[in-house]
Amino acid sequence: MRSFGALLGAFFAGHVAALRVGPAPGLRAREAVAPVSPPRGGGFAILFAPGIDGTGRCGQRQWRRLQHFVDAIDVLTIEPEDTSSFEEIVAFVLAALRERRAAGQRTLLVGESLGAVVSLGAALAEPDLVDALALINPATSIGETWVGPLGSFVADTLPEPLYRSLPAVITPLFGAAGWFEGVTGQPLPDFPTPQALLALSNQLSDVLPAPALKHRLGVLSDGAARVASRLASAKAAGGAAWPWARRCALIATTRDLVLPSTRETSRLAALIPGSTRRVVDGPGHACLDDDRVNLLQLLTAAAIFELARDDAGDAPAGAGGAAAGAASGSGGGAVAPGASIAARRAVPAVKRELSSSELAGERLNQLEGAAALASPVFFSRGADGSLERGVHSIPLPQTVGGRPVLFAGNHQLYGIDGPLLVREVLNERGVLIKALVYPPLMGKGFGDGADATSQRSSMPLHPLPYPPSGTAEIFEMYGARPISARVLVQLLAAGEPVLIFPGGAREVFKRKGEAYRLFWPDAPDLMRIAAKYDAVVVPFSGVGSDELGDVVVDTDEILALPIVGDWFRQRVDVLPSLVKDDLFVPPLVVPRVDRGIPRHYFLFGEPIDMAGVDRSDEAAIAQKWAQLRAAVEDGLAVLQRKRADDPYAEFYRRTAYERIAEGRQAPSFM
Known about the structure:
Helix content is 41%, strand content 13%. By secondary structure, it is of the alpha/beta class. The protein has three domains: 4-145 and 225-324, 3-Layer(aba) Sandwich (Rossmann fold); 149-211, no CATH class; 357-640, Glycerol-3-phosphate (1)-acyltransferase (3-Layer(aba) Sandwich). The strands form three sheets. Strands 8, 9, 10, 11, 12, 13, 14, 17 and 18 form a nine-stranded mixed beta sheet that branches. Helix 4 links the parallel strand 4 (106-112) and strand 5. Mean pLDDT is 79; it is low at 1-16, 24-39, 314-357 and 445-456. Residues 1-18 form the signal peptide. Keywords: Signal. This is Acyltransferase. It comes from Diacronema lutheri (Unicellular marine alga).
């Protein structure tokens, strides 16, 4: 069987190494890995210890997110024929930690299930070697459950054909229908037949044959007992002040039907003073490939990276200035040696603020509900211009030497696209883009906005329900700023990532027959400002919202109505105008009930580098402006063409899939 190190190493282009425990009696050395240069995570790395399968294949999306925060991600893999004891596996992990410490690198140990017991065992054995700890559905409670005895009985007594079919039967216990995709490396078919499930089941039994299962359960039982003994001894001695304790995240999922993880993490929290407990509602035991689990968010909400760096100083011994200056969210490329440490801490602070307020939670739930209905998918252009899934290759200030990055693209009906874009980059890259929004949407200049009620009444179209309740709060929580040339200049001068819609309210409130048309100003002032600050401009295109429904009465027709038109005109005439005809009058739209909510698609195009462009050169600036507009229009055409190949573009089919395969977003055209 090919090791996970080779698979994931190729996937991450050398940024992930694999640690392998070989068959007894010896241990295989860690495989070589090309160093990351320059370091991006301030001398910080992750070592992941997987569950009982030992493959370490699960959680690829989690590692894609976290790779922007660390210098390396190593994965412990245990081959099916391995007969190492618990103490031998822990010793191997400790040897790897010593090697890292000697190189001046700090380590976050992430363990899932059995791997959580191994990680905790290592942290208790040599506390000074572990800088931070994340334990996910820890199997430390194995001795109190049916899992050990039943698993041993199954491994000892079931005939091989029946054992090989067992994984397909027990799928509901472990999580969503495709939970074993991360273990076998084979995707679940869109509509799996019994034969397909049986084939995948056979592959899983190859990964964990009956003798290996029996041995791993023994390793787990022994490890859980050893860990329990050490924790009990520490408690009897009046408690231990482990240096990693306040940098320990205990993570449980509510539908873990294999282990009592919510209760066990609560018990561990009482035994590990200073640790942080997080509970994720919905996922099952095998949760790292569940879309509802975002390890980056969980770790930043618990301030794990922030605390570890604060406790150890801005750089470990042996780490250079570039490592100390590396900021969160970097994805490769040059890093400014003098980048501020504060940049790394901004996102964790934002995430804690978002999670600490009851009002914030309510507003975020609204946004998450909208995202669930739209099921947005994101694409970007790779270095060779090819289309790729996700936002992991888009430039951010930390990947372009601390220069500002300006995201500019089309706006869609009612403006839901902005929050979806900001949410995705924050979730996947840990970077908060500053969106520039129409000032009235933030209640600016209309009442004091001291609370939700006054903000509601301060909106220009009150008492009409637009913008929806909570809009201003969501914008403020996500760092949005009221748009103006002064604010744009301030943000670019500070090297921030900025989101702007050149078409403004004119594109949000389209007239009949104007879906996906751009209404941008002729003057290329935006590119002139971008050139002044050597910004990287990233064009983006969005498709979906303009088809939320049929425009029955558009803005112009509303304003032409007697009485009603006068009422609107009195309220919008005093509002700022940023684009020609950008009247703040929403059209009357009738939802297309027969088609439901359209799926939303976003494409980030090839960046336009404004460094070296003379802002006084009118021809050059005009050419860049035309290039930006053409890139957005091309992206719109690509998305509208490509979505025809999406088997789940249709709302009801997509929703049915996502309800059945809970925790998994429906596939798209790639």
